[in-house]
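call fold(seq) -> tokens
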Amino acid sequence: MKKLFIWGQSGFIGKLLKEHFYKKSLDVSMIGRNKDCHFTINLACTTDIPNSIDNNSIVFFLSAISSPDICDNDSIYAEKINLTNTSIIIKKLINTGAKVVFFSTDMIYGNLTKACDESTSPTPDTNYALWKYLIEKDFREYDNFITLRLSYLCDRNDKFTSFLLNSANGQTIEIFDPFHRSMIHSDDFLKIIDLCIKDDPSMPKILNVCGQRCVSRVEYVKSFSDYINLSWKPIVMPDDFRKNRPESIIMKSVHIQNLISFSWTNPGDGILNQLKND
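ret:
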């Protein structure tokens, strides 16, 4: 059995992976700065890696400062974590023979007005996106390095959806419009994660992890707002938010349908089903 490691387990995606692997009774260890991790490592202070990681290991590397605003406003500190120390650690991981699954972002495509897939040349225009792309570029030639370029991953526990659920039965909230992403529901995302665990030669080195189509925030909210009694109104995205976040990223994948045969989960319907099954 492969030994799985989640590096950066405190965020939404790390917790989602942890729960998924535990349900499958897999051998998984958490790495992060929190004391409840199996291995406590603060990426801002050290570039050590656990001695137990070897060529029978898979490391899901999530650790990063994920706020584009912090990456812009505190760029020296953020670059140290997201680029300098991340690069050192990933090189050490690769040298052990472990498979590294690196989580990148759809933002590396910049503010494109047309659809982009894995063959589209990245044009990162923020610090956060640039550093993700530079890590991709530095390690893409290694056989044991895989990049997942992630679009908006929706689940009842993600940050935006949690905000919506916590706002139910309350005052009217504001929803940015236009704002579009190729949302993927957590059910579909985890099927892709399962592929990463397998030694499948058909797995591409770079994979856009996205849904079947681009979805606006307004459409997404409409899908379940009545069910949770949410009062909302659309507003134009303010300039300070827009600065580091494109209005629209129409990301597609030329690989997903060839890798997995499944019926796509409509993002809003997926949330509604989660709520009804509680």
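The chain has a mean pLDDT of 95.
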